[in-house]
Amino acid sequence: MSDGAGEIIEVGEDVNEWKSGDRVMSMFFPEWSSGKPEFKKIKSISGESVNGFLTEESCVPAYAVTRMPEAYTYPEAACLPCACLTAWNALVELGNIQNKQKLLIEGTGGMSVFALLLAQQYGLDIYATSGSESKFDKLKSLGVINVVNYRNDENWGKSIFMLSGMGVDHIIDVGGGSTMKQSIEAACMGGCIYSIGILGNGRKGEITFPKLFFKFLKLQGLAVGSRAMQNRMVQFINDTGMKPIIDRSFSFDQIKEAFSYQASGKQFGKIVLEW
Ligand SMILES: NC(=O)c1ccc[n+]([C@@H]2O[C@H](COP(=O)([O-])OP(=O)(O)OC[C@H]3O[C@@H](n4cnc5c(N)ncnc54)[C@H](OP(=O)(O)O)[C@@H]3O)[C@@H](O)[C@H]2O)c1
Predict the structure, then answer these.
(1) In this structure, which CATH number among 2.40.50.100, 3.40.50.720, 3.30.43.10, 3.50.50.60 belongs to the domain 96-221?
(2) Percent of the chain at pLDDT above 70?
């Protein structure tokens, strides 16, 4: 439970940045305030090496939260610190996405759907893969140009390459070893693949190296982002009015059901617990 949002109840004596009543959200890497990633900045992870947010109250350092988007509810803000910031870091901070470039999102999980929403705002042409035909219409209604079913089409990378007219510029790779070969196929000349996840048992796998170098591809690994990036992302959301897609909300005591639902892969976008 790396992410949460809520209201500040009380602040410590020396805290000037916050006051009670402020609406804030958590940080995935509480020690990464700004600048480039360093081992020491990313060793603390909310919900892993430090306490997470399956809690009614939490005591955190003042630097370990940021303001949340003004028009957001707490459940909406709780979607942002991991999934949206990862997509933001990939596409905006590192990828410098531009109007009319092409993006491929893989699957319809929380992070991929945030990549889609951000790319919409920047005017990209968006392509998607999904293993769930029932989600195709929803993807199309969000402006996705073509969807390929990665379960029926084992050469889905080539299919995306053809459908997009010589490949896509940016690829959000969520499967690692289970998707990277196809991601390389889908890329255009000089495209960039953001290695983000290992869905589909993708901890290890093969890469077609000649394709990587003859297509002059960039392979960019990344993990979430810094506090400074989170603040820039919040500013962007305030400016554009972008909203997350929440598939389902569960109550605090439905956590087991929530995890089962997450594991089923039926969700489109995020799921949240609220209380
Ligand atoms: N590096 C980072 O900083 C970072 C940050 C966030 C997440 N992650 C990682 O990124 C991955 C996605 O995270 P998430 O929270 O968005 O996951 P999620 O919400 O659980 O995503 C589940 C969805 O992914 C799709 N999917 C499942 N297996 C797939 C496969 N083999 N190939 C393509 N799509 C597949 C399915 O969509 P369809 O039904 O449409 O097929 C499924 O509904 C995870 O591995 C997560 O650990 C990494």
Answers:
(1) 3.40.50.720
(2) 100
Fold of 5-83+225-274: Quinone Oxidoreductase; Chain A, domain 1 (3.90.180)
E strands within 180-269? 187-195, 218-221, 246-251
Q: Is 108 in the pocket of ligand 1 (CB under 6 A)?
A: yes
Q: Return the half-sphere exposure (C-beta side, CA atoms, 13 A cut-off) of residue 128.
A: 30
Would you list the domain boundaries of the chain? 5-83+225-274, 96-221
Q: How far is the CA of 20 from the centre of ligand 1 (A)?
A: 36
Rg (CA), the chain: 19
201's tokens: 């048992």
pLDDT digits (tens, 9 = 90+) for 8-17: 999 999 999 9
Residue of the CA atom closest to atom 36 of ligand 1: 107
pLDDT reported for residue 209: 96
Mean local confidence (pLDDT), 114-119: 98
Confidence (pLDDT) at 114: 98
Q: Is 269 in the pocket of ligand 1 (CB under 6 A)?
A: no
